[in-house]
Every structure is written in structure tokens, then in C-alpha cells.
Amino acid sequence: QVQLVESGGGLVQAGGSLRLSCAASGIISSINDMGWYCQAPGKQRELVATITSGGSTNYADSVKGRFTISRDNVQKMVYLQMNSLKPEDTAVYYCNADAVVPLMGARRYWGQGTQVTVSS
Fold first, then answer.
1. How does DSSP classify residue 89?
2. Phi, psi of 110, deg, nearest 5
3. I want to staple 113 with a disulfide (CB 3.0 to 4.6 A). Which of 12, 52, 92, 97 is the partner?
4. Distances (CA, A) of 55 to 49, 51, 89, 93, 109
5. What mean pLDDT, rounded, does the chain reach?
6. Using an 8 Å Cβ cutoff, are 91 and 68 in contact?
7. Beta bridge partners of 67
8. Spatial contact of 87 and 15, defined as CB atoms under 8 Å apart
9. Considering only CA atoms, which of 27, 38, 16 is closest in space to residue 99?
10. In angstroms, what CA-CA distances link 58 with 1, 6, 37, 86, 104?
């Protein structure tokens, strides 16, 4: 069983910063892509940023230049540095990992989510 646990969410004023962390645990052979998604009230979950095991990144247009995704392959962690936050960034942020588990192969796992609220 693979578990993803997010931390670092909270309430911040517009223009402020937050750093989200996500720790993967369990019997994991390797992790391919990792990423962050967000879901605002009444909206579908959408991609924020992804990062490959080799460090290649992809960002939603709305966060380019403001957010930075990074990972630590040894510690099985992924991070999201969020700067210049806007009220429209308010959402629950979910960690996602494409993890390879012995005898089960690769599948996607989700964390429980962490709330980010940006006040104007």
C-alpha cells in the first residue's frame, strides 16, 4: 500500500508564499512522475505542476513563473513552492505519484489533500 501525505497548506494573504510538501511511503520500487493538482469549490480537479523522475517539469499556464515544483527521489518527496499567491489559487491541493509497487506494477496514487486559502 502506497500512501501520500501532504503538508504545508494554510491561510495566506495575496502576494504571500507557501511551500507544500508530500511524502510517499510504503513498499515502492520506484516513482515515475509526481505532481500537484488542485480543486476549487465547484470545479474539477486540475493539473498544477508535474515533475518526472529525471527532473523535467510541466506547469499550468496560470502558475508559470510563480510556482516551482521539485522532488527528492531518495526521500520520496515532492514539493511545491508557491509564490505571489492570488485569491484564485485558493483550492485543495492534492499530491499525485505514479509509483511502481512490487508484483503490482505502476499505478497512480493520490494524497488526501491540503487546503490553501489566499485572502485578498
1. G
2. -125, 145
3. 92
4. 12, 6, 24, 21, 19
5. 97
6. no
7. 82
8. no
9. 27
10. 27, 20, 12, 20, 27
- Return the residue matching grid coordinates 523535467: 56
The three-point CA angle 10-39-17 to 5° equals 35
| Residue 23, all three cell numbers | 511524502
Q: For 16-82, give the DSSP string.
A: --EEEEEEEESS-SEEEEEEEEEE-TTS--EEEEEE-TT--EEE-GGGTTTEEEEEETTTTEEEEEE
Residue in the structure block whose three cell numbers are 509497487: 101
Question: How many other β-carbons are positioned within 10 Å of the β-carbon of residue 13?
Answer: 10
